[in-house]
Amino acid sequence: MTIKLVVIGGGSSYTPEIIEGIILRHHSFPVTEIVLVDIEEGNQKLEIVGQLAKRMIEKSNKPIKLSWTLDRKEALKQADFVSTQIRVGGLTARSKDERIPLQHGYIGQETNGAGGIFKALRTIPVLLELARDVHEICPQAWVINFTNPAGIVTEALLKHSPHKKVIGVCNIPYNMRYSTAEILNTKPKNVMIEFIGLNHYVFGRKVFVNGVDYTSEVLTKVSQGLDYSPANIVNLGWSKTFIEATSLLPNPYHQYYFQTAAVLKKDKQALEENGTRAEVVRRLEKSLFELYKNPDLCDKPKELEERGGAFYSDVACSLMDSIYNNKADIQTVNTLNKGAIPELPEDSVIEVNSVITKNGPQPITVGALPNSVKGHIYQMKAFEELVIRASITGHYKDAYLAMVMNPLIGDEVGSKTLLDALLEAHKDYLPQF
Ligand code: G6P
Predict the structure, then answer these.
(1) Catalytic one among 14, 253, 256, 312?
(2) What interface predicted TM-score (ipTM) does this complex get?
(3) Is 253 an active-site residue?
């Protein structure tokens, strides 16, 4: 029995995470082969990460064959799992997504607002091509998509590619469970959060510890200033009034929507002091790669935890483990709604607790959306559909609609100004426009 994992974007500084995850789970999920794939521009990074991954595997003594290559089609042969972690246009493009909106007075973020729209426009066509290759070369494989904006990209793949074995994952629900466990002084495995919503727009409706409802304790702590933001975004905390009125656990990205002015102020200040998050990450990556080059380093370095996506591999590896072992446990993933939220289309992708078996995720019924957030979730889903359409048609008016219907942009004139500036800035990566 063999298990082959292909990591698309294998030259990423995050890769030691997934290697560690595979090593740690090898007793239950015995991967036999890993292939790291990257593109020409990522070649140097791929070589450094590949060598570190090799040392990590050698140290672990696990019988895992490892290789790295720029030949994606060759790598995909006989793959069982294909994980994707790519950034079309690299950190340079991300920096533009963050800086240009801020310069025009709008939120500039990698996955939200105008930045998120442009990341989706650049990424969807590239991943659709990958999904077509997967379908042709290794139709049996599960695609585990980490590539942002993860929910939107996953929906685009499920709707517009022939390959249907696609699952989107994100570390935010995982982080929320971990932070909750910490404040309740228990282990994450004892915590269950009922999630409702969409990727980077998900709320926790109920928190249970070993089946006992701890929602109000957690909400109280959150309104007292608990810090549960990942490294990449600000933590402003939530007012007691907001938490009491909504009775929901917001995720850190909700700050962009419900504390827009305050985040803008903080982000502008951060831009002046440190540059964009992409520029901070570039510096972080530089020192990470210096560490990775050390031939004596055989483990994932602690410094990797300074990245916003720290621990993402736990999410990916647990998911693959459960599919492989037909575990029927519950994990939070991005998958087809299939009626879990009755008000949203059956074929919308939502972020939802799901039972994971060898057939993939089966979403657990969420039920009707609370009135408080119903309007926002509808709007976000409708906006996501507009972005997907624009990424495929390449029509100016479709992209404009996505901009103007996004709650972080909205302004008629501002949307056009921003759209024109970003289309120009990213033209090399938007051949469809
Ligand atoms: C969070 C998000 C991820 C995102 C990451 C960015 O964890 O959930 O979707 O990719 O942060 O982190 P970075 O260190 O690249 O800013």
Answers:
(1) 253
(2) 0.97
(3) yes
